[in-house]
Amino acid sequence: MENAQDLVIFAQVVENGSFSRAARKLKIANSSVTKRIQALESRLGVRLLLRSTRRLQLTEEGRALYQRCARIKSEVEGISEEASSFKEVPQGTIRLSVPPLLAHTCLAPHLTGFLTRFPNVSLQVDLTERESDLRESGFDLSLRTGELRDSSDVAQRLCAVTTVLCASPTYLGQHGRPKRPSDLEHFNYLGWMSPDRRTYEKLVFRKGKKTFASRIRGNFSSSDAMAIREAAIHGAGITLLPDIAIAQDIESGLLEAVLTEYTCFQYPLYLIYHRREHQPAKIKVAIDFLKSIFSQPVSRFNREADPG
User: Fold this and answer.
1) Domain count, the chain
2) Under 8 Å CB-to-CB from 165, ≥6 apart: which residues?
3) pLDDT tens digits along 90-120
4) 35 and 170 in one domain?
5) CA-to-CA distance for 279 and 41, rounded, in angstroms?
6) How far is the CA of 152 from the CAs of 149, 274, 279, in angstroms?
7) Which domain holds residue 198?
8) How far is the C-alpha of 200 from the C-alpha of 192, rounded, in Å?
9) Worst-scoring range by mean pLDDT, 88-102, 132-146, 290-304?
């Protein structure tokens, strides 16, 4: 039993980022946390945490152990929640992973209504673009776009996302509006940067059955779509952003869509959650909530089909 308690303490230290915060969470003495972690490291014969005055850092062995702890914790919580789900009273914490841009522009405006309706539910929202295994990461649900890796989790398609070429009215007033994709090389393009720091040098647009390649250049790129959106709103240049994320920006006049008869990137948005015979009540209402936000098609940009 003591071994299991040591694993719980270790997981709390990792999740809280310090021994003192873990001690407060567990309502035990700081020295007890230190003693139990030392005992765990001694028993396993490896260092799990590198400690300094400023922060804790997981060793490779510590990271592997924490992933196992997170999976076990998720399984135990799942069993408990499935048992309580028969009461059909949504309660407890929901851990949700969402791309930052969708969290800010699509999810956040609806949170008050959801949390007011379900006062016994709390949400922990992690902002990341990375796809991760739910059991390894400890999440209950995640929203992800594009191609997914193989997994035993349920991946429910919510909607199709289309990127929209847009800029602020101020920028377009100063620099003009592109009439065709090839015009983009004369505009300052705000680009997406992949985690390995790659950026696009060319975009391919479609209009009906025809394709049009365009060179792009610009003085700003980022791996954070929110930063790109903010830069566009403040007149730094022209960019591609997901239609579902900028619908309100277009309606309010913060951004203006251009070349709307052309399409560039299109990809599905998925809601991912654990495959269970009986979903906990809190997960059921969260799934319905997210489907209500993202399942409605965005048709505000007056795209024109061109058969030629």
Assistant:
1) 3
2) 178, 184, 238, 239, 240, 257, 258, 259, 260, 262, 264
3) 889 999 999 999 999 999 999 999 999 999 9
4) no
5) 36
6) 10, 8, 15
7) 161-266
8) 7
9) 290-304
Cα(7)–Cα(62) distance, integer angstroms:
11
Q: Are residues 261 and 287 in the same domain?
A: no
How far is residue 50's CA from residue 180's CA, in Å, rounded to a whole number?
Answer: 56
Both 152 and 272 in a single domain?
yes
Which residue is listed with tokens 């277009």?
A: 250
The answer on 201 and 165 residing in a single domain is: yes
Distant-in-sequence, close-in-space partners of 78: CB < 8 Å, separation ≥ 6:
274, 276, 280
pTM comes to 0.66
pLDDT in tens, 214-255: 999 999 999 899 999 999 999 999 999 999 999 999 999 999
Give the pair of three-digit tokens for residue 10: 């270790």
